[in-house]
User: Which sequence fits this backbone?
């Protein structure tokens, strides 16, 4: 299954009922994340990736995407990398995403959970200040 089918489907099915999730990654601007969200007054961006079983950062998570997230949070915004690797979901902020992209094996992630999509735990992170 493709990234669009597995990860996007989870966002649309399990997160969208709790707020506004708009798919915007088809923009022509380089690095624009896949989703803009607004939940309980908190807004931000999600970059969604299907991750290889090797645990390595995929080539399709580009430097431009990471830099976009770092710039967004430098100005007070929210940006997260949502990943699916096998049956394990992960959520990283720009610090964790940078470490992941740089190949650091430790897991500076906000969330790592095996099994079904952890919508409640992800929503808590998306809306916190």
Assistant:
């Amino acid at each position: 299954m493709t990234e669009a089918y597995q990860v996007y489907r989870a966002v649309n099915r399990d997160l969208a009922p709790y707020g506004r999730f708009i798919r915007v990654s088809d923009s022509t601007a380089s690095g624009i994340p896949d989703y803009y969200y607004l939940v309980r007054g908190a807004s931000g961006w999600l970059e969604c990736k299907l991750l290889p079983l090797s645990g390595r950062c995929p080539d399709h998570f580009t430097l431009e995407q990471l830099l976009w997230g770092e710039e967004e949070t430098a100005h007070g915004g929210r940006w997260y990398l949502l990943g699916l690797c096998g049956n394990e979901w992960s959520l990283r902020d720009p610090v964790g995403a940078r470490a992941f992209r740089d190949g650091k094996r430790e897991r500076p992630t906000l969330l790592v959970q095996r099994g079904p999509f952890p919508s409640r735990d992800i929503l808590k992170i998306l809306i916190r200040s």
Remarks:
- The first strand starts at residue 20 and ends at 23.
- The domain at 3-127 is CATH 3.40.1350.10 (Trna Endonuclease; Chain: A, domain 1).
